[in-house]
Amino acid sequence: MRAGPVLSGRLRGAAAVAAGAALGAALGAAVCLTRGLVVVTVRGTSMAPAFRDGDRVLVRRGPRPAVGRVVVAERPAGGGTWPRPPVGAGAGAAGVHGRDWLIKRVAALPGDLVPLDCVPALATAPEQRVPPGKVILLGDNGRVSFDSREVGYFPLERVLGTVLRRR
């Protein structure tokens, strides 16, 4: 389904193997600016078996995601920080291009209990609930996924959008 002009852009992301070996997860995308949609090509196996390397998914930018939904989020740099400001809601292809992106499932939203059993990075966090403006993101294939297990919380402002369906 295509509406309006489509601008090409490449979104890149990465995933890390739990054992420490690097596994690239590049995301390719075409941005449909008129409806806030992004077509993303999944690279890597961090979301297997739900999504496999080469799958194309339609992502909607905008509303807050729900627990269990799959999202595209900006990958943090070393130390769980982001060197650039977040991509704004109205940013076009230029604002989205050149960022590192990940595809992950939402495990918890602000106010939800922190699932300590599956997020070791938060085992020493003082909060029992996810703080405002934060989210916990996990890859379905935990053995190879770079996600909240290592990073801890992701800021909601770093979530680009929610995956609507496979294309």
From TrEMBL:
Stored CDD domains: Peptidase_S24_S26
Ranges where the Peptidase S26 domain occurs: 25-114, 126-163
Record membrane topology: Single-pass type II membrane protein
Thylakoid keyword on record: no
Highest taxon of the lineage: Bacteria
Record protein name field: Signal peptidase I
One Gene Ontology cellular component: plasma membrane
Reactions mediated catalytically: Cleavage of hydrophobic, N-terminal signal or leader sequences from secreted and periplasmic proteins
Record key words, sorted: Hydrolase, Protease
MF-aspect GO terms: serine-type endopeptidase activity; signal peptidase activity
Top EC group: hydrolase
PROSITE patterns: SPASE_I_1, SPASE_I_2
GO BP: signal peptide processing
Family under the similarity heading: Belongs to the peptidase S26 family.
Gene3D superfamilies hit by this protein: Umud Fragment, subunit A
